[in-house]
Structure prediction request, 579 residues.
Amino acid sequence: MALAADAPVVSRTASAPSVRSWRKSEEATGLALVSPTLLYAIALLGLPILTVVTYSFWSQNYLEIDRSFTLENYRAALTEPIYRDLLARSLVISLVVSVVTVLISYPVAWFISFHGGRHKSLLLFLITVPCWTSYLLRVMSWKMILGYQGVLNTGLMSAGIIDQPIASLLYNSNAVVITLVHSWAAFAILPIFVSLEKIDRSLVEAARDLGDGPVRSFLRVVLPLSLPGVISALLIVMIPTIGDYVTPKLVGGKDGVMIASAIQAQFGKGANWPLGAALSVTTMAIVTLMAAISVLLLKVTVGRSR
Amino acid sequence: MRAVSLPRWRLLPVFVTAYMLFLYLPILLLPVFSFNNAAATRFPLAGFTTKWYASLWGNREMLDSAINSLIVGVCVAILSTGLSICAARAVTRYRFRGRKAATGLIMAPLFLPEIIVAVSLLMIILQVGIELSLATVILGQTVFCLPYSMSVLTAGFDGFDRSLEEASLDLGETAFGTFRRVTLPVVAPAILSSLLVSFTISLDEFLLAFFLSGTEPTLPVYIWGQLRFAAKMPGVLALGSIMLLLSIIMLVLAELLRRRAERHVSAGGALHA
Prediction:
């Protein structure tokens, strides 16, 4: 569709004899209109990322930057236990968070889409409200809840359910996972909801009419057709959580430190920009890899359901 | 058949309710403990007080950072929406080479962990030799807000009927006049919600501000500094409750705007039919 619309425009500009008519063409107008935004993005996103990539191949020599090419930073990032473990832990935590978030959000999205009735948009709105409240404060409230003298422990104790506070609630990777799931829940619901909405309801009816029970018609019709939404939800949660800084810092303790802290340290006290750059590039590479896998999965599932 | 699906019917609403509680309870703790007459956030509650709110008034540092946040938020909202109006208009109305690549770069912050954006901006800003200030926070947060503004605005521009513009041009209106008198009124709700969304994001944004703000903290950076001290907790809770109330008001406003815009579009459609 887009290609068909493109073709006549391109041929028109190609056959145009003078610069003047090109200037008036659709192509030139479009480029001129997009250029302020594009230049802004190039200057403040494209160039900075290039700088990071360049730095990652240099090295820190006390106070000076040695500009000869080296892969030493990547060796450190991938083989030194401290960085390797942080990268692995960040990846595992973000995978767990995205899977858990999608698992608990799917039924809710399904409920709203199939049984929301005329309250659909109100329900969706109610789910997105908490996500727009201050991120820092949401993380902080989990610290309040899970602390040794926190809301959960003292609440359970005054209710007489436990005698001693549970010590293992805060400052570990579980606390990080719970907090991140809470932060990203609504972002997972939206894509799943959209893909459920797109499903032709007559397909579900047809499956029922042909003798599939509710469970089978769900597994064979609804679930496969909503997989694109599920995969984009996984991605939407995974990308920001892998580099999250605030949550591990506030509720993670020693046990829940993630890669963002190590990156930040290289630009603060550690003062090793090239190493920080290499850690950043590695994190980006992991994210890109996960995104590529997801897109591939998406293509396979969409291809199969056709 | 029906008997089989009945228990599922009861189970699911229960699950959805539990999910809602999971989303809302942690946030509702903020106002609860902000009125609690004790510094420690623990049960049982220690009685009602408004002293934590009163203590905010004399807090110069907090007020300054709130003003910083407002300045940054307004600038980011205007800059991000202005830039996105151009780009969204270009990609929805015109076909040109590199359209996909341009959109890809502008939307890229959605696909990058924020720490990477923050670190790379910090490096280039220090490299060029610009001093860290509120201006650098504004520059950085605008990059971060562009994808959201773009999404809102391309959606708004997409629903726009091109024949209206063509009619206006045919009737002798200039391109600018057409934009101002025909296009703008129709897309105004999208522009307003882009302003609101980017303002809200900027107000809440911590990491970029933390890296780029130098000696002038925004509100989230100020709060981050307070979180280290247990004694400052109730003040932060009171501040947080006020911010909570404000962001809910903003959200409801944005939602009402969006619904009005939707009615607008569907009313327009009905008119054409």
About this structure: Chain B has a mean pLDDT of 86. Residues 92 and 158 of chain B are 6 Å apart (CA to CA). Residues 61-272 of chain B form a domain with the MetI-like fold fold (CATH 1.10.3720.10).
